[in-house]
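User: Can you predict the 3D structure of t-SNARE coiled-coil homology domain-containing protein? Sequence below.
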Amino acid sequence: MGLEKEIASVQSQKELDSMRLQAKRKRIATLESTREMVNLFHQCEDAGISTWVNLKRQDATLGRVESKMDQMHSNLVTADKTLVKIEKGERACCWCSFCPSCKSKPKEDNPNLWRPVVAAKNRSWDDNKEGHFRLKSTPTPMISEKDPQLPKDSIGTETEIDQNLDQVSIMVKNLKTIALEVGQEVTVGNEQLDRLNLKTASNVRTIHSMTKRVKVLV
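Assistant: Sure. Here are the predicted structure tokens for t-SNARE coiled-coil homology domain-containing protein:
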């Protein structure tokens, strides 16, 4: 009976050691998975922030282009007033209802088109804002894939797993914020492009009309 109990005890110990080994392997696999999640979310954050930065710079560039377009429109208005004065001197000897220069009026634009866009004027890029999203997370040092250092005990492993999961939770919130900011920048950029298309078409029409009127005067 004593030998049987000893054999049973040895078998039980082997089963217990096997279960402990499996549990350790599971913890290690879970730890590596959470580390990989943190790495992937860091890459997603970097990509999202890079996209946001590029959109902000594009927004600033479009704002400068729109400002130049407004200046061109202002110059065309000034030139049109001068041309009207010249035309009034030429019309003294003709019937205005039949004069070609009187008929070549440019198409009227939407009065709201050339109103100053307050939001667009203040959208200048600031390099200090690039770290805006980083302030919300406190990333822990990453473990090198070539030298994966594992905690010596199960408590250390579980602690790191919890820390990694907390960090992933923070980065998920950051990604949501970045996605909303990127969407807002895309919307603003599309609105600027629409305005630029309308303003370009308006300036082209004005230039064509003034060219015809100048040819008549010449």
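The helical segments are 2-90, 100-103, 118-121, 154-217. Residues 2-90 form the longest helix (89 residues).
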